[in-house]
Every structure is written in structure tokens, then in C-alpha cells.
Amino acid sequence: MAGTARYLRYILFAFVCIIVIFFISSSSSGPRQHLQSASDILKEQSSKWRGSDAQTPAKADAEKAGSAATAHVRPAAATPMSATTPNLKTSLPPPKADGSRMNATFVTLARNSDVWEIARSIRQVEDRFNKRYNYDWVFLNDAPFDDTFRKVTTALTSGNTRYGLIPEQHWSFPSFIDQERAAAVREDMRERKIIYGDSISYRHMCRYESGFFFRHPLMLEYEWYWRVEPSIELFCDIEYDTFRFMAENKKKYSFVLSLYEYVETIPTLWESVKGFIKEHPEHIVENNSMGFLSDDGGKSYNHCHFWSNFEIGNLDWLRSKAYVDYFDHLDHDGGFFYERWGDAPVHSIAAGLMLRKDELHFFNDIAYYHVPFTHCPTDEQVRLDNKCHCNPKDNFDWNGYSCTSRFFEINSMKKPEGWEKQQ
Ligand SMILES: Nc1nc2c(ncn2[C@@H]2O[C@H](COP(=O)(O)OP(=O)(O)O)[C@@H](O)[C@H]2O)c(=O)[nH]1
Ligand SMILES: [Mg+2]
Known about the structure:
This protein is of the alpha/beta class. It has a single domain (104-421), classed as Spore Coat Polysaccharide Biosynthesis Protein SpsA, Chain A. It contains 16 helices and twelve strands. The protein has helices spanning 2-28, 31-50, 57-69, 115-128, 147-156, 179-191, 200-211, 242-248, 269-279, 290-293, 315-318, 321-333, 335-338, 343-354, 380-385, 404-410, and strands spanning 104-109, 136-141, 161-165, 224-227, 233-234, 253-255, 258-260, 304-306, 311-314, 360-362, 368-370, 373-375. The chain is globular, with a radius of gyration of 27 Å. The N and C termini lie far apart (99 Å). 35% of the residues are buried. Guanosine-5'-diphosphate (GDP) is lined by residues 108-111, 114, 141-142, 201, 205, 229-230, 309. One of its GO terms (cellular component) is membrane. This is Alpha-1,2 mannosyltransferase KTR1.
């Protein structure tokens, strides 16, 4: 009997060993499961602090697979975070795109050599805003994007990335431009040390941003755009959908910084605008922002413009007959090449004259830097609520070279407390 009991104990022991070996081997057979659980822990921790807005690992995997299979096109995010994770920050919008997104995209014009500078910008835009919305990102270039550019930008973005080549006729001298005259201007500007004054490519860039980016085949699919340039910074969390805000508030164009343009780059721009107004008075709207652009009722331009390296705007407006007539008129006057007209005054004058005042928006809560200016909200509570890391001393809004005061005045907006101290 004692022997039988011993045998039974051996059998039981062997059985337990087999079960233990089975569990060890099954849990170590998938390193991915280890990764997933580590990522789950991270996710759980981060959602405790930030509200549940992190991606599920399963979804991240699905997106990676999607991106590999369809050349950078990821499936639109669908599943909100686990309902069991407490969302401590109830003011946050729905964490992921769920079909209620706007028809919108980021858009960046860039060279391959801009890759690391645009990488910095993307990282900030994603961290501060787009990781919650996964909006697409369109990259445009006058030369084909190389593999490094595509790989780096696709890895950093949460939405689909799309890469467009600019057609040559949108990035070259139009036939009506006198090349010799344009070359003489560049030489003269080089001698006078006017910034980008001797550059041909900068002129193509300004003309493209003024008149063509919104007509690129890739852009035709969208209604809203957010322009992002290399090496910008975003200093605050943006916890709402800025595109939806624009649509719901009937806004068409927006800015964060405004300033005076270099007079030497646009000596005859206003003459050209006046010619356009005469030719197409039907495109000038009532209740426009002429008071932002001119101090004498339109006789002369005061050089105020919205800084167009940041823009959130409506593409249908830019594609409208009014805007296209305006661009064609300016283009034929030749100032993109015979002077060095920038897309910032070109867009700003259009927005100022062809949109109603209430269709323009100042995004105070988008704290932003593009060398050398910063917009940092004046109101401390706005900075704290949105986890801003900008130094309010750097805020340019109320500086004498900014036109933002003027924007507030023509719109009878109350300036934030403490603005005088930042003058
Ligand atoms: N593809 C392409 N993009 C350009 C070129 N020049 C400028 N850009 C882009 O146009 C935008 C404005 O140029 P940037 O050098 O930032 O001008 P700045 O901000 O006025 O000093 C940026 O997004 C640049 O990456 C060019 O020759 N080719
Ligand atoms: Mg720039």
C-alpha cells in the first residue's frame, strides 16, 4: 500500500510539473504579449494622469499593419479607450477619431532637407493635439520626397500621411514674366541685403502658398487645413477640435501672430490690390477688416498681416472664384517676381477684404513659436489650464511691432488682463 501511495505521489508530482512547464512555455512563447502587457501598464498609468486618450496597443499594431500594407494609409481610428479606465479629465473631447472628425488635414510644404526640422514640429503637433484626433497630414514638395522623409514623417504622425509632387507649372516662372527684369530685381535686393531678396525658390514658394497649395489634387479632398512649418513649437495642450471650432463658429481663416511686413518686399502690392478692388468690387464684402489693413480707409496699406506660417483655414474659401480672381490679378501684376511678395500679406489682405470680420479668428489658446516670435497667452489661467510651457515674457501680442492690438480694437474685443505690462 505504501508503494502504491508513493507511486501516486510521483504521478501527482509529474502532473503538476507538466502543468507548470506548460504555463511557463505558453507565456514565454510570445514576446509580443510581454510587450503588450508592458504597454498596457504604461497606457493605464498615462490614462490615470491624462484622461484615457492613449492608443490601445492592439490598435497601434493594426495601424502599423495598415500603414505597411497600404503605403502610409492607416485605418481611421475607431475604438475609444476601454470604458473601464476612469477618465479623470472629463473636459477632454472624445479620445479618438470616431467618425465625427472634420474633413481636414495638416499641410506642410517642405524639402527633403527639412526632414529633421519638420520632425520636431510634427512631434509637438501630435503631442499637443493630433494624437487625440489622428487627422491626416499632406506633404507637398517641388521634388519627389525621399525614403527618409517618408519614413520619419510617417512614423511620427498618428493619421494618414500623403506625399504630393507639385506640378511644374505651379513652381516656375509664368510666361508673362520678364526673366531679365526679375533677375535684375534679385540682384538689386541682394545688394540691399533684403531677406530672401535674391532667392528664386523663395519666390516660387511664396507664389505657391499664395495661389496653388489648396488646388493640389491631394488637397482637393479636404475642406479644412492647418499649415505647419518646420521648427515650430506648440506650448499648450489643445483639448478641442480646432477644425470643428472653425466650422461651428463660421470661421474661415485664423491666426496666432500678426506683424508689419518689410516694406521693401511689397512696394506695389497695395496698388495691385486696389486694381483688383476696382475690377471686382463684387468680391469685397461688407463688414470686412479694412481697419486692420489700412489707417486711411483703404488709400494705403499699413503693412499689417497675419503670420501665415501658422494658419487654420477653409480650403473652399481659397478655391472660391473671389479668391482665385484675386490671386490671378496679383499674379499678373508680377510682384511675386518683380518684388518679393510674401504669401502672408497676400492671404491676409484677402481675408481682410473678402471675408467678414466675424469669419476671422485669433486662436489665443494655441501658444506658438516660429523664429523669432512667440504667441504665449497673456492670461495666466489659460496657461495653467492648458499646461502651457511658454514664458509669458516672450509674448509678442502687445509689442509695438505686432498688429494684434489693432485686430482686437477693430473687433471691439476686450484685451486680457495684464496686456499693458507686455507692451
Ligand atoms: N519644397 C520646398 N519647400 C520649400 C522651399 N523653400 C521653402 N520651403 C518651405 O516653405 C515653407 C516656408 O519656408 P521657410 O524657409 O520656413 O521660410 P520663412 O519661414 O519665411 O523663413 C517651409 O515649410 C519650407 O519648408 C523649396 O524650395 N522647396
Ligand atoms: Mg518658416
